Amino acid sequence: MATRSELHYICRPIQSQASPLAIEFLSAPDFLTDEPACKQLWELIHTQFHTRSKFLAIWSGVRFVAVHRANDGSADGFLLVNSPVNWQIDYVVVRPDARGQGIAAALVIETLNQAVFRGVPYVMLTSTPALRPLYEGCGFMVIEERVGAETAPPPDYLAPGSELSWQ
After folding, report:
1. CB count, 10 Å around CB of 65?
2. Beta strand ranges found along 12-160 (DSSP E)
3. With 80 as the cut, is the pLDDT of residue 16 above it?
4. Of 8, 4, 37, which is closest to residue 142 (Cα–Cα)?
5. Measuring CA to CA, how many Å separate 48 from each of 68, 82, 147?
6. I want to staple 3 with a disulfide (CB 3.0 to 4.6 A). Which of 13, 62, 148, 167 is the partner?
7. pLDDT tens figures, 55-71
C-alpha cells in the first residue's frame, strides 16, 4: 500500500484579488435550494473523491458554498467552507469536462475575497502535494506535511513569536 502524503496550508487574507471567473458565494441554505447543483456536487464527491461518508460528516459544519457555472447555467465547480472561527476549505471539485479552465483557482480566490470582506483571520485547508501549485498560487503556504502517520516538523516561520504562531 502506498503512503499518502498530505500538506496542510494556511492563508491570511488581507486584500482582495481579481477573480478570473464569475463565482457565486452562497450560504449553505441558499445553495440547498438549487437541486440540480446539489445533485452535481453529490455526483462529483462520489466519483472524484469516493468519500461520501466524510462528506456527510463535514456537511453539518459547511456554512458557504462557492459555485462556478458553465455557459449553460449548470454548476461545474464547487468549494465548501466550514467556518467555526477561521475558515476551513473542505472540498474543491470541478467537473472533469470543465478542468483546465482556471475554475478551481477562481473558486479559491473568491473564497479568499469573501474572507477579506467578512474579516476572517485565516483560511486553512489540507490537500495532496499535486495541488501545491494551485494553492500556493492563490496565496496559501504549507505549514505542515504529513506522510502516513508521520509528521514533518513545522517550518521556522512558525516559531514562537512569529506572526503566524498559534500561541
Report:
1. 25
2. 24-27, 62-69, 75-82, 87-94, 123-127, 141-147, 150-151
3. yes
4. 8
5. 17, 20, 22
6. 148
7. 888 899 999 999 999 99
Nearest of 145, 162, 158 to residue 8 by alpha carbon: 145
Give the separation between CA 151 and CA 145, rounded to whole angstroms: 6
In a domain, 28, yes or no: yes
Closest CA to 119 of 7, 14, 11, 9: 14
Q: Report the domain count for the chain.
A: 1
Domain of residue 69, CATH code: 3.40.630.30
Q: How many CB atoms lie within 10 A of CB 130?
A: 9
Longest dimension (CA), the chain: 51
